Amino acid sequence: MEFNVEELRAYFLTRIIGRRIEYYEELESTNTEALRLAQENAPEGTVVIADAQSEGRGRLDRIWESPPSLNLYLSVVLRPDITAAASSLIPLMIGVAVADIISKYGPGQVRLKWPNDVLVDGRKICGILTEMRTRADRVHFIIVGIGVNLNMRKLDFPREIRETATSLRMGTECEIDRIDVAIRLFESLERWYRIFMSGGEAAIREKWLQYADIIGKRIEVVFKSDIQRGTVVGLDEHGALLLEGETGVQQVLAGDVCIERL
Ligand code: BT5
Questions:
Q1: pTM over the 0.85 mark
Q2: Whose CA is nearest to atom 2 of ligand 1?
């Protein structure tokens, strides 16, 4: 299905998110292009969308599978006037905004996995990659990259992730209109970003915890060669996971979470 970017532009003229929309048939990575535009002073709310990415990126140099014509790959430039420390809630806020939209399509049980995965029935449907530039200890800009699988079918995924990935189409058995999802997603991002900027951090943490359903669970967090284990007791004010282990409560700032099966 064609991606009608004019329809999208007309819709978002008056808002923050989507006030400028750059669309490309193919980019290496929408995050890389958004970083470049932000460095050239692109306004807050600029969105870069690509039909396909040749080098879609995950965290820690991982690959984000980004074939053409099927999914959404986009990056948003945000310029919140906050400290770098306060920005760590942003990936969680974005996860909530995406989870709200995915849930509306009713593909199955939607869950958030700390810090940045959206899962449907335990399989990954969306990945979020945030990259920040600071000036002194304040945010200069943040690039929020979002990849959502919409019309992928099982065999469209490479073998290595066939059992761990899913799409809206696989969950609903309906073809999904990419513009429809993009419009709803921009609206949801706008809503949650405004909540964040008007002091609504507690509402974001609460909603995130509802979607994550992780309190009281024993988990293992792997970051490079480091492993932390413990029981999740909450999120701190900036969105770090709080784990209670043998040495007391510790903060988890980065890593991949795995729930221990007892
Ligand atoms: C992420 O990394 O989940 C962040 C992905 C962000 C992608 C968006 S697309 C628009 C923007 N431009 C970019 O270049 N990136 C952003 P991470 O948590 O490291 O997960 C990566 C892992 O997810 C891979 O190692 C695979 O196991 C798996 N994976 C790769 N492609 C996938 C896909 N399309 N669907 C589900 N899982 C995938």
A1: yes
A2: 58
